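Bench notes, afternoon.
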Amino acid sequence: MDDRVLVVGGGIAGLAVARALHRHGIPTVVSERLASPPHQGLAVNLPGNAVHALTALGMADDLTGLGVPIRRREYRNARGRLLFSVNESEFWGEAATPRCVRRSDLIDRLGRGLPAGTVRPDCQVTSVRPTSLGVEVGLAGAATESHPFVVGADGVRSTVRRAVSGEKALGTALLSAASWRFMAPNPGVDCWTVWSGAQGTFLLIPVDAHEVYGYASATRGGPVDADPEWLRASFARFPDPVPHVLTTVLAETSSLYHSPVEEVRIGRWTQGRVVLIGDAAHATAPVWAQGAALAVEDALVLAELLATHQDWSQIGPEYERRRRPRVTHVQAMTDRFSRAAGLPTWFRDAILPFVGPRSYRETYRPLQPPVVA
Protein backbone atom coordinates (compact mmCIF):
# COMPACT_ATOMS: atom_id res chain seq x y z
CA MET A 1 0.00 0.00 0.00
CA ASP A 2 1.15 3.54 -0.81
CA ASP A 3 1.39 5.23 2.61
CA ARG A 4 0.51 8.67 1.24
CA VAL A 5 -2.88 10.35 1.55
CA LEU A 6 -4.32 10.61 -1.96
CA VAL A 7 -5.94 13.92 -2.89
CA VAL A 8 -8.05 13.72 -6.04
CA GLY A 9 -8.11 17.08 -7.83
CA GLY A 10 -5.42 19.72 -8.23
CA GLY A 11 -7.51 22.87 -7.99
CA ILE A 12 -7.80 25.27 -5.06
CA ALA A 13 -9.40 22.69 -2.75
CA GLY A 14 -6.94 19.93 -3.58
CA LEU A 15 -3.81 22.05 -3.31
CA ALA A 16 -5.07 23.64 -0.09
CA VAL A 17 -5.56 20.28 1.63
CA ALA A 18 -2.24 19.00 0.29
CA ARG A 19 -0.51 22.07 1.69
CA ALA A 20 -2.33 21.74 5.04
CA LEU A 21 -1.34 18.06 5.29
CA HIS A 22 2.27 18.86 4.40
CA ARG A 23 2.39 21.45 7.21
CA HIS A 24 1.37 18.64 9.58
CA GLY A 25 4.05 16.33 8.18
CA ILE A 26 1.57 13.92 6.56
CA PRO A 27 2.83 12.44 3.24
CA THR A 28 0.49 13.39 0.39
CA VAL A 29 0.11 12.93 -3.35
CA VAL A 30 -2.31 14.83 -5.61
CA SER A 31 -3.81 13.24 -8.72
CA GLU A 32 -4.90 15.82 -11.31
CA ARG A 33 -6.66 14.58 -14.44
CA LEU A 34 -5.47 17.49 -16.62
CA ALA A 35 -1.99 17.48 -18.10
CA SER A 36 -1.65 21.21 -17.35
CA PRO A 37 -3.79 23.80 -15.55
CA PRO A 38 -6.83 24.94 -17.56
CA HIS A 39 -6.22 28.25 -19.30
CA GLN A 40 -9.22 30.17 -18.02
CA GLY A 41 -7.42 33.29 -16.86
CA LEU A 42 -10.24 34.10 -14.46
CA ALA A 43 -10.21 35.51 -10.94
CA VAL A 44 -11.60 34.57 -7.56
CA ASN A 45 -13.07 36.84 -4.90
CA LEU A 46 -11.80 36.03 -1.40
CA PRO A 47 -14.05 37.29 1.44
CA GLY A 48 -12.59 37.78 4.90
CA ASN A 49 -13.03 34.18 5.99
CA ALA A 50 -11.08 33.02 2.94
CA VAL A 51 -8.28 35.43 3.88
CA HIS A 52 -8.30 34.01 7.43
CA ALA A 53 -8.11 30.45 6.08
CA LEU A 54 -5.30 31.16 3.62
CA THR A 55 -3.39 32.99 6.36
CA ALA A 56 -3.69 29.85 8.51
CA LEU A 57 -2.09 27.98 5.59
CA GLY A 58 0.93 30.24 5.90
CA MET A 59 0.03 32.41 2.91
CA ALA A 60 -0.27 35.86 4.47
CA ASP A 61 2.77 37.17 2.59
CA ASP A 62 1.62 35.57 -0.66
CA LEU A 63 -1.76 37.28 -0.44
CA THR A 64 -0.19 40.68 0.11
CA GLY A 65 1.39 40.39 -3.33
CA LEU A 66 -1.73 39.16 -5.13
CA GLY A 67 -4.62 41.17 -6.56
CA VAL A 68 -5.99 44.12 -4.63
CA PRO A 69 -7.86 44.53 -1.34
CA ILE A 70 -11.61 45.00 -1.81
CA ARG A 71 -12.52 47.59 0.80
CA ARG A 72 -16.05 48.43 -0.31
CA ARG A 73 -19.11 46.86 -1.93
CA GLU A 74 -21.70 48.80 -3.92
CA TYR A 75 -25.11 47.45 -4.88
CA ARG A 76 -26.75 49.40 -7.73
CA ASN A 77 -29.93 48.99 -9.75
CA ALA A 78 -30.18 48.76 -13.53
CA ARG A 79 -30.23 52.56 -13.83
CA GLY A 80 -27.07 52.92 -11.78
CA ARG A 81 -28.65 54.24 -8.60
CA LEU A 82 -26.71 53.22 -5.48
CA LEU A 83 -29.02 51.14 -3.28
CA PHE A 84 -26.52 50.54 -0.48
CA SER A 85 -22.82 50.04 0.16
CA VAL A 86 -20.75 48.10 2.69
CA ASN A 87 -17.39 49.03 4.19
CA GLU A 88 -15.71 45.60 4.01
CA SER A 89 -12.44 46.68 5.65
CA GLU A 90 -14.38 47.94 8.66
CA PHE A 91 -16.46 44.77 8.88
CA TRP A 92 -13.64 42.23 8.52
CA GLY A 93 -10.73 44.24 9.93
CA GLU A 94 -7.60 45.24 8.07
CA ALA A 95 -5.89 41.85 8.44
CA ALA A 96 -8.84 40.05 6.80
CA THR A 97 -9.92 42.64 4.22
CA PRO A 98 -11.28 40.73 1.20
CA ARG A 99 -9.18 40.47 -1.96
CA CYS A 100 -9.81 39.65 -5.60
CA VAL A 101 -6.95 37.64 -7.14
CA ARG A 102 -6.29 35.85 -10.39
CA ARG A 103 -7.13 32.18 -9.98
CA SER A 104 -3.93 31.08 -11.70
CA ASP A 105 -1.87 33.18 -9.26
CA LEU A 106 -3.60 31.65 -6.24
CA ILE A 107 -3.12 28.11 -7.56
CA ASP A 108 0.53 28.86 -8.28
CA ARG A 109 1.12 30.14 -4.72
CA LEU A 110 -0.67 27.16 -3.17
CA GLY A 111 1.49 24.77 -5.19
CA ARG A 112 4.73 26.51 -4.24
CA GLY A 113 4.30 25.28 -0.67
CA LEU A 114 4.43 21.61 -1.71
CA PRO A 115 7.43 19.30 -2.14
CA ALA A 116 8.46 18.57 -5.73
CA GLY A 117 6.52 15.68 -7.23
CA THR A 118 3.49 16.03 -4.96
CA VAL A 119 1.18 16.76 -7.89
CA ARG A 120 0.78 14.08 -10.58
CA PRO A 121 -0.65 15.73 -13.72
CA ASP A 122 -2.49 13.75 -16.39
CA CYS A 123 -3.47 11.18 -13.75
CA GLN A 124 -7.19 10.48 -13.82
CA VAL A 125 -8.90 8.60 -11.00
CA THR A 126 -11.71 6.46 -12.40
CA SER A 127 -12.96 4.66 -9.30
CA VAL A 128 -12.69 4.71 -5.52
CA ARG A 129 -13.56 1.75 -3.31
CA PRO A 130 -13.26 1.86 0.50
CA THR A 131 -11.87 -1.35 2.01
CA SER A 132 -11.31 -2.57 5.56
CA LEU A 133 -7.68 -1.42 5.49
CA GLY A 134 -7.84 1.70 3.35
CA VAL A 135 -9.04 2.74 -0.11
CA GLU A 136 -8.53 1.02 -3.45
CA VAL A 137 -8.26 3.52 -6.31
CA GLY A 138 -8.58 2.81 -10.02
CA LEU A 139 -6.63 4.96 -12.47
CA ALA A 140 -7.12 5.50 -16.19
CA GLY A 141 -5.20 2.81 -18.03
CA ALA A 142 -6.42 0.02 -15.70
CA ALA A 143 -3.82 0.62 -12.99
CA THR A 144 -4.87 0.39 -9.34
CA GLU A 145 -3.42 1.77 -6.12
CA SER A 146 -4.17 1.45 -2.42
CA HIS A 147 -3.97 4.43 -0.06
CA PRO A 148 -4.69 4.83 3.67
CA PHE A 149 -6.99 7.79 3.04
CA VAL A 150 -8.55 9.57 0.02
CA VAL A 151 -9.72 13.18 -0.18
CA GLY A 152 -12.20 14.00 -2.94
CA ALA A 153 -11.38 17.54 -4.04
CA ASP A 154 -12.44 16.98 -7.64
CA GLY A 155 -15.16 19.58 -7.96
CA VAL A 156 -18.81 19.68 -8.90
CA ARG A 157 -18.66 16.59 -11.13
CA SER A 158 -16.67 14.57 -8.62
CA THR A 159 -15.69 10.98 -9.36
CA VAL A 160 -14.95 10.39 -5.68
CA ARG A 161 -18.45 11.48 -4.69
CA ARG A 162 -19.91 8.40 -6.41
CA ALA A 163 -18.07 6.25 -3.85
CA VAL A 164 -19.42 8.27 -0.93
CA SER A 165 -22.99 9.02 -1.86
CA GLY A 166 -25.44 7.37 -4.20
CA GLU A 167 -27.70 10.39 -4.02
CA LYS A 168 -28.49 12.58 -7.01
CA ALA A 169 -26.07 15.38 -6.30
CA LEU A 170 -26.25 18.05 -8.97
CA GLY A 171 -29.01 20.64 -9.01
CA THR A 172 -29.51 23.93 -10.82
CA ALA A 173 -29.01 27.00 -8.64
CA LEU A 174 -32.12 28.90 -7.61
CA LEU A 175 -30.72 32.24 -8.76
CA SER A 176 -29.58 31.42 -12.31
CA ALA A 177 -29.19 28.36 -14.51
CA ALA A 178 -25.84 29.50 -15.91
CA SER A 179 -23.38 32.39 -15.92
CA TRP A 180 -20.80 34.22 -18.00
CA ARG A 181 -17.37 35.02 -16.55
CA PHE A 182 -14.55 37.05 -18.03
CA MET A 183 -11.60 39.35 -17.50
CA ALA A 184 -11.60 42.84 -19.04
CA PRO A 185 -9.63 46.09 -18.97
CA ASN A 186 -10.53 48.05 -15.84
CA PRO A 187 -12.81 50.95 -16.85
CA GLY A 188 -12.15 52.75 -13.55
CA VAL A 189 -13.95 50.43 -11.11
CA ASP A 190 -12.35 50.72 -7.66
CA CYS A 191 -14.57 48.42 -5.59
CA TRP A 192 -16.84 45.35 -5.77
CA THR A 193 -19.77 46.72 -7.83
CA VAL A 194 -22.94 45.00 -8.95
CA TRP A 195 -25.78 46.26 -11.13
CA SER A 196 -29.01 44.27 -10.96
CA GLY A 197 -32.20 44.53 -13.01
CA ALA A 198 -35.30 42.49 -13.75
CA GLN A 199 -33.56 40.03 -16.05
CA GLY A 200 -30.00 39.88 -14.88
CA THR A 201 -27.08 40.85 -12.67
CA PHE A 202 -23.71 42.23 -13.80
CA LEU A 203 -20.74 42.26 -11.41
CA LEU A 204 -17.30 43.83 -11.76
CA ILE A 205 -14.46 43.43 -9.25
CA PRO A 206 -11.05 45.05 -9.70
CA VAL A 207 -8.08 42.68 -9.78
CA ASP A 208 -5.73 45.63 -10.12
CA ALA A 209 -5.73 49.08 -11.70
CA HIS A 210 -5.60 47.54 -15.17
CA GLU A 211 -8.05 44.62 -15.09
CA VAL A 212 -11.44 43.61 -13.67
CA TYR A 213 -13.10 40.27 -13.15
CA GLY A 214 -16.66 40.14 -14.49
CA TYR A 215 -19.60 37.88 -13.73
CA ALA A 216 -23.03 38.01 -15.35
CA SER A 217 -26.09 35.87 -14.66
CA ALA A 218 -29.87 35.89 -14.78
CA THR A 219 -32.25 36.39 -11.87
CA ARG A 220 -35.35 34.40 -10.94
CA GLY A 221 -33.75 31.23 -12.31
CA GLY A 222 -33.89 32.62 -15.83
CA PRO A 223 -31.97 31.16 -18.79
CA VAL A 224 -28.49 32.34 -19.71
CA ASP A 225 -27.90 31.61 -23.38
CA ALA A 226 -24.56 30.15 -24.44
CA ASP A 227 -24.50 32.69 -27.29
CA PRO A 228 -22.45 35.70 -26.10
CA GLU A 229 -25.05 37.99 -27.64
CA TRP A 230 -27.17 37.18 -24.59
CA LEU A 231 -24.93 39.60 -22.71
CA ARG A 232 -25.66 42.45 -25.11
CA ALA A 233 -29.39 41.76 -25.13
CA SER A 234 -29.52 41.62 -21.32
CA PHE A 235 -27.22 44.48 -20.30
CA ALA A 236 -26.73 46.92 -23.19
CA ARG A 237 -29.11 49.43 -21.56
CA PHE A 238 -27.34 49.33 -18.19
CA PRO A 239 -25.38 52.48 -17.28
CA ASP A 240 -21.68 52.97 -17.85
CA PRO A 241 -19.28 51.30 -17.39
CA VAL A 242 -21.31 48.17 -18.21
CA PRO A 243 -21.84 48.91 -21.97
CA HIS A 244 -18.18 49.90 -22.28
CA VAL A 245 -17.03 46.59 -20.78
CA LEU A 246 -19.50 44.65 -22.95
CA THR A 247 -18.15 46.25 -26.11
CA THR A 248 -14.63 45.18 -25.14
CA VAL A 249 -15.37 41.56 -24.25
CA LEU A 250 -17.77 40.96 -27.14
CA ALA A 251 -15.10 42.11 -29.56
CA GLU A 252 -13.00 39.13 -28.45
CA THR A 253 -15.40 36.39 -27.33
CA SER A 254 -12.61 33.86 -26.73
CA SER A 255 -12.08 35.61 -23.38
CA LEU A 256 -15.62 34.73 -22.28
CA TYR A 257 -16.38 31.63 -20.23
CA HIS A 258 -19.94 30.23 -20.09
CA SER A 259 -20.91 27.52 -17.60
CA PRO A 260 -23.94 26.15 -15.72
CA VAL A 261 -24.43 27.25 -12.12
CA GLU A 262 -24.83 23.91 -10.35
CA GLU A 263 -25.12 23.10 -6.68
CA VAL A 264 -24.28 19.99 -4.67
CA ARG A 265 -26.37 19.22 -1.60
CA ILE A 266 -25.98 15.72 -0.26
CA GLY A 267 -26.62 14.06 3.08
CA ARG A 268 -23.18 12.48 3.49
CA TRP A 269 -19.68 13.74 2.75
CA THR A 270 -17.73 10.78 4.10
CA GLN A 271 -17.52 7.00 3.97
CA GLY A 272 -14.84 5.22 5.92
CA ARG A 273 -11.49 6.66 4.88
CA VAL A 274 -12.92 8.72 2.01
CA VAL A 275 -13.86 12.37 2.60
CA LEU A 276 -15.21 15.03 0.23
CA ILE A 277 -14.18 18.68 0.48
CA GLY A 278 -15.00 21.89 -1.37
CA ASP A 279 -17.34 21.82 -4.37
CA ALA A 280 -17.30 18.02 -4.47
CA ALA A 281 -19.19 18.10 -1.15
CA HIS A 282 -21.18 21.33 -1.22
CA ALA A 283 -20.93 23.45 -4.37
CA THR A 284 -23.14 26.51 -3.91
CA ALA A 285 -24.12 29.37 -6.23
CA PRO A 286 -21.48 32.13 -5.90
CA VAL A 287 -23.82 34.67 -4.29
CA TRP A 288 -21.54 35.14 -1.27
CA ALA A 289 -18.26 34.06 -2.94
CA GLN A 290 -17.78 31.09 -0.62
CA GLY A 291 -16.48 28.42 -3.02
CA ALA A 292 -12.77 28.92 -2.36
CA ALA A 293 -13.35 30.07 1.22
CA LEU A 294 -15.23 26.96 2.34
CA ALA A 295 -12.83 24.69 0.44
CA VAL A 296 -9.77 26.06 2.24
CA GLU A 297 -11.60 25.89 5.58
CA ASP A 298 -12.49 22.25 4.84
CA ALA A 299 -8.82 21.58 4.13
CA LEU A 300 -7.65 23.08 7.40
CA VAL A 301 -10.16 21.16 9.52
CA LEU A 302 -9.58 17.83 7.77
CA ALA A 303 -5.78 18.13 7.99
CA GLU A 304 -6.01 18.93 11.70
CA LEU A 305 -8.17 15.84 12.30
CA LEU A 306 -5.81 13.58 10.35
CA ALA A 307 -2.89 14.94 12.36
CA THR A 308 -4.53 14.45 15.75
CA HIS A 309 -6.43 11.16 15.35
CA GLN A 310 -4.81 7.74 15.08
CA ASP A 311 -7.87 5.92 13.71
CA TRP A 312 -8.52 7.59 10.37
CA SER A 313 -11.60 5.46 9.75
CA GLN A 314 -13.41 7.46 12.45
CA ILE A 315 -12.55 10.96 11.24
CA GLY A 316 -15.50 11.38 8.87
CA PRO A 317 -18.28 11.98 11.42
CA GLU A 318 -16.18 14.51 13.35
CA TYR A 319 -15.27 16.34 10.12
CA GLU A 320 -18.95 16.62 9.18
CA ARG A 321 -19.91 17.72 12.70
CA ARG A 322 -17.45 20.59 12.53
CA ARG A 323 -18.12 21.66 8.94
CA ARG A 324 -21.86 21.13 8.40
CA PRO A 325 -23.18 24.13 10.38
CA ARG A 326 -21.02 26.65 8.52
CA VAL A 327 -21.84 25.19 5.10
CA THR A 328 -25.56 24.91 5.89
CA HIS A 329 -25.58 28.57 6.93
CA VAL A 330 -24.02 29.63 3.60
CA GLN A 331 -26.52 27.52 1.66
CA ALA A 332 -29.47 29.00 3.57
CA MET A 333 -28.28 32.57 3.04
CA THR A 334 -27.65 31.85 -0.64
CA ASP A 335 -31.24 30.65 -1.02
CA ARG A 336 -32.58 33.67 0.85
CA PHE A 337 -30.68 36.10 -1.35
CA SER A 338 -31.69 34.23 -4.52
CA ARG A 339 -35.38 34.47 -3.59
CA ALA A 340 -35.01 38.17 -2.81
CA ALA A 341 -33.37 38.76 -6.20
CA GLY A 342 -36.49 37.32 -7.82
CA LEU A 343 -38.84 39.87 -6.25
CA PRO A 344 -40.48 42.49 -8.50
CA THR A 345 -37.78 45.01 -9.37
CA TRP A 346 -39.58 48.05 -7.97
CA PHE A 347 -40.13 46.31 -4.64
CA ARG A 348 -36.61 44.90 -4.46
CA ASP A 349 -35.08 48.32 -5.14
CA ALA A 350 -37.29 49.87 -2.47
CA ILE A 351 -36.33 47.46 0.33
CA LEU A 352 -32.65 46.78 -0.46
CA PRO A 353 -31.37 50.00 1.16
CA PHE A 354 -32.83 48.68 4.42
CA VAL A 355 -32.46 44.90 4.23
CA GLY A 356 -29.27 44.74 2.14
CA PRO A 357 -26.75 45.79 4.82
CA ARG A 358 -28.50 43.56 7.36
CA SER A 359 -28.35 40.58 4.97
CA TYR A 360 -24.61 41.15 4.49
CA ARG A 361 -24.04 41.19 8.26
CA GLU A 362 -26.25 38.18 8.92
CA THR A 363 -24.44 36.19 6.24
CA TYR A 364 -20.86 37.03 7.11
CA ARG A 365 -20.92 37.56 10.88
CA PRO A 366 -21.08 33.78 11.63
CA LEU A 367 -18.13 33.34 9.23
CA GLN A 368 -15.87 35.89 10.94
CA PRO A 369 -14.30 33.55 13.54
CA PRO A 370 -11.46 31.57 11.87
CA VAL A 371 -12.06 27.82 11.78
CA VAL A 372 -8.46 27.13 12.81
CA ALA A 373 -6.47 29.61 14.86
